[in-house]
Amino acid sequence: MKEIKTQPICFRSQLSKIFLLISIIRMTVFTFTTGFCQSAVKQPSKKIHLEGLVTIDGHATSAQVEVHSSHKNKNSVFHTQADKVRGVFRVSLPLHDDYEIVVRVNKFPQQIISLKAELTDTTTYLNIFADFMSPAYDRKIYELQQSILAQQSLKEKSFDGNSFTKKYGHTKKEGLTYQVQIAAYKLVENFNYSAVVGMPKIIRKTDKDYVTRFTMGNYETYQDAFELLKKVQKNNLKEAFIISFYKGEKKFLNQLESDKILP
Prior knowledge:
The chain contains 5 helices and 13 strands.
């Protein structure tokens, strides 16, 4: 019989190859699963967060609310409602779309608020208002608005904005703040909310003088409020102006000098 010759096997070499192959397989699997997980985890989407207030003759009321996407997602409709006690509703909407917010209450025509959420690229917050008014209450509000405008006009005649800015633009006083007022008692019909997207939220508040004001911002210096005023007026809110509060009391700007609040 012929002797069969066999090649000597180097077990150490073979084991090294096996371990190397296992390591490569593990690394490949790890890389695949890690990449899959990273792609599967979605980044939080940017949205516009709306808080709405619904009233009838100044009092909170319940309401049915529909939000229609009118640009990209034409078939999308969001349903929510305002609660009866506070009249508040909240909804978060994706950016880069146009919306119509339809608000319905009993015995009044529906109100439609148009909003272009495509005008911003960052998550933002916006307050909106749906004020339903009876004819008698509407007349009362109109008369009050005219009275406020008359007072404002009278005070502004003796107020030099340029001089005030030079003297007090960066002056701070404890208890003194400045805000930009865009309306009193109610917003104008068909108010352009798209124009204030990305700006400070609109605050509706009844002050100690019993006037309900719609304001934006709350600043320690006149100059900061003036910078916001320029942006607001640039977006066609021409009637906006700066108001001040000292220790919670509304003050006309010229009163800050006449009452010696500012030196």
